[in-house]
Amino acid sequence: MSRCFYCNTKKEMFITGARPKNEKMRKFKYCCDNCVSKTDAFMDFADRTRATFWTGISFAALLCILGIVLSDFFHTIAMICLMISFFVLGLTIIFFPHATPEAFAILSIKKTLILAKILGTALVLSSPMWILL
Ligand SMILES: [Zn+2]
Questions:
Q1: How far is the CA of 35 from the centre of ligand 1 (A)?
Q2: Which of 54, 56, 64, 76 is 20 to 30 A from 48 in CA distance terms?
Q3: Which pTM was predicted?
Q4: 49 C-alpha vs ligand 1 centroid, how far in Å?
Q5: CA nearest 124: which of 87, 81, 85, 94?
Q6: How far is the CA of 39 from the centre of ligand 1 (A)?
Q7: Cβ neighbours, 10 Å, residue 53
Q8: Which residues lie across from 3 on neighbouring strands?
Q9: For residues 32 and 28, what is the distance between their CA atoms, to the nearest angstrom?
Q10: Please, what is the average pLDDT of the chain?
Q11: Is 39 in a helix, a strand, or coil?
């Protein structure tokens, strides 16, 4: 008994091996063709948006560093940098929930996407707190 890589369902009958288009996804098991095609669609999306994802992460990281460096001299500007950093990071994670196949294998793709949306929303909602500090 093992779990579907996409939806995490436990089932006796499993589709394994060669069907997913993406090479890395072939070592995992799937419960139905629908989950295979959803995995393929997600991996296509992930490949197309990888550059955007890293741009968002880098931008957020730079703003975060800038905010920390400025915090001793320009408190308000530093807090605005940190707020935008959290906001951008949250949006990036919500819209481009990239992870490695190994990470997806632990939670399944479906649950990882839900978790990413929750974490991203928490970051976006918590971003205004920097202004209050
Ligand atoms: Zn499934």
A1: 5
A2: 64
A3: 0.81
A4: 24
A5: 87
A6: 9
A7: 16
A8: 10
A9: 12
A10: 88
A11: helix
Separation of CA 8 and ligand 1 centre (Å): 6
CB 104 within 8 A of CB 8: no
Q: What CA–CA distance (Å, rounded) separates 61 from 59?
A: 5
pLDDT (average), residues 44-61 = 92
**Best CA proximity match to 92, nearest among 55, 118, 45:** 55
Q: How far is the CA of 91 from the centre of ligand 1 (A)?
A: 27
Q: Are 88 and 56 in contact (CB under 8 A)?
A: yes
Give domain limits for the chain. Answer: 2-132
Span from the CA of 12 to the centroid of ligand 1 (angstroms): 12
Q: Which two tokens stand for residue 118?
A: 């929750």
Instruction: Specify the higher pLDDT residue, 57 or 106.
Output: 57
Indicate whether 105 pLDDT > 70.
yes
Average pLDDT rounded to a whole number, residues 67-80: 89
Interval between CA 56 and ligand 1 midpoint (Å): 30
C-alpha 17 chain-centroid distance: 25
Report which listed range, 10-14, 18-22, 46-50, 117-121, is most confident: 117-121
Residue 13 is predicted with a pLDDT of 73
Q: Are 86 and 124 in contact (CB under 8 A)?
A: yes
